[in-house]
Amino acid sequence: MKGAKGKGAAKKDSLKPVDDKKVGKRKAPAKAVGKSKAKAGKAAKDPNKPKRPPSAFFVFLEEFRKTFKKENPNVKAVSAVGKAGGEKWKSLNAAEKAPYEAKAAKRKTDYEKLMTAYNKKQESAADEDEESEKSKSEVDEESGQEGGDDEEDDEDDDDEDDD
Hints:
It is a single chain. Helix 2 (about 55-70) crosses helix 3. The chain is built from 6 helices and no strands. It is mainly alpha-helical and about 160 residues long.
């Protein structure tokens, strides 16, 4: 009978590597969960934040889309419009690109103005949040009213003596 126990113990040992493989397989999905935590850690996008301005190419592409759809009404693929627009943009010389670059520069200055206003608004909102996060006791201490806190401290001291 002792021999049987020894063999059984050997079988259990031989099963351990298989169990390790299962544990290894379980670890892979855990890493995927870790990635989602990283995404969850990102701050939520503020819908009031101004959108970034388009580059000169995208300003060009806005106009090009309209003309391309008029010339090719049967083409529905977005990729086809993008490829054709890219080829056209590459074929333009600097003088032909200049009006689109000027429009993009104007939009960028407008965006910068909006962002400075947005950032000022965010800072003022953050200052208000800091004031509202102060506890009532901190507000009372600033105004010189500390009477209410002493009574609570005395009650806490009595509780400690009972232990």
